Prior knowledge:
heterodimer; B: mainly alpha; MetI-like fold
Amino acid sequence: METTVRTAGRTHPMWFLVPAFAILFVFFFLPTLFNFVYAFTDWSSFKSEIRYTGFGNFAALLSDGTLFAALRVTVVYAVLVALFQNLFGFGLAVLLEQDTWLNRAARLAFLVPVLMSALAVGYVFQALLKPDGSLNGLLSALTGQQVEIAWLGSTTWTLVLAAVIHAWKWMGLSMLIYLAGLKTIPEDVTEAARIDGATPWQAFWWVRFPLLAPAVTFNVATALLGSMNGFDIVQALTGGGPARSTEILNIFIYRTFGQGLFAQATTMSLVLFLVVALLAFPVIRVLRKREDIL
Amino acid sequence: MTVPVFGSAARHTRPPVVRGLAARLRPFAVVALVVPVMGVPLWLVVATAGKSQGEALSPDLSPPSDWRLWENLVQVWQQGEVPAAFLGSLLVVAPSVALVLTFGSMASWILARRASRLNAVLYALAISGIVLPPAVVTIVLLLRQLGLAGSPVGMIGVYVGIYLSTVIFFVTGFVRTVPLSLEEAARMDGAGPVRVFFSVILPLLRPVLATATILICLYVWNDVFYAFFVIGGRLDTLPLNLFQVANAGLYLDNWHLIFAYIVLMSLPLLVVFAVAQRKIISGITGGAVK
């Protein structure tokens, strides 16, 4: 290892950090700082000058209920995505754990949606779930009666469905990470449990499952925090409807930005930033702590 | 969060031997799951992309009476301005990926090798972007002030800024597992830091850089949200085009063209994946979990 700062400076000069941090500063940190400034102004496409308005934007969004409505939708969506994506990914990993040719082929099939654009996935499911779409057609053919369920027309269940579709798109990636986790568990651990008289079921849940903690941390954190920042799937599937019941924060930002209400869009962007920041640290800490105990 | 293992991805251990009825039924369960869950949506895409406009009006799962996939692809290629959008996508994706990998690796090398309090803070700042959402609205304002609004350069800067965190996170963990003695040997021979980095470190990073390349290509190639704010209306990319034509009245009731567009747009990534799937899978799994 380096002994003094001076030799470190010669062998690992700090200027190697400059390009990365210059770009991070200009294109990531600076806009984030701007969020804290422009959320308190009346910046819009209708006026030429920008004036300070204090908490006016927050007050407006709070008083008409938009803020909490959009927040609630976003958090519910993110939690459901984290739940479904991990259930599906974990189930697939367990089902496809052995390296047979069939399992390999199935794993590849589940990776196709990961490669597809999220927007495309949204359109595909819109076509599947329309009232006169393929799913109702399939159900009609199977039951022999005309089925006309408005899958995308429910103010309660459409959001859940959107979360399932988001999980469908990304479950292949979660599956890979769980598979990798399963493969790192040495076989003698399970063997020892079996010799001690554990049934395969017990050996799985009490011995192998706890050893997957790092994979769970990674998958839950990325699914939860990644879907807070979601947009494409829901936009292509429902556009935020019906009656704004699937309008997650980024769709709200996209819509208000399109209307020229830049300050309001900035305010919501700041809200999203603060909520993700507030959620990220406890979520990662709790999950990490679980790893330490094991 | 997690640290990749130096030099080797997940090693294949012999899977535990399972016997009994459940084990023999498992292949059937696999097929019974893959067919509806993956087969139905993907078949819908291909079948609808192969139909005539009349047949595709309400997209169902029946096969087209007359396959016209090629004609539809040609029509989308010409009317959907695919060549321009394809070039636009390439113009943005290639430099973004090259820059984010180069700058990210350079920074990671120093962050991994010089353990000071300052560097711990810098590292935390650098990887914060993995979870924190970018400020999409004010980016537009900033780019206007910089004179980069709507330009490919601005878009590339935004992508590099967003995905540097991911690269630094993966690569720093990897560099820590590279033995220092390899660098020292080169240094003994009189190599300066630039030589050491580009001829010793960078080649060793190949596995982790391959993974990062795949992930970032995936994100940037398919991105529509950031592109809408930064270059929407000024430069075409494939997803932006899909978004615009699917929203516009032009493609209303033209599911066959939307799905033909989706096929065209997904093909490049699918081809890359088909060629390099084994490497990609071991790369992703090796990097995320230890």
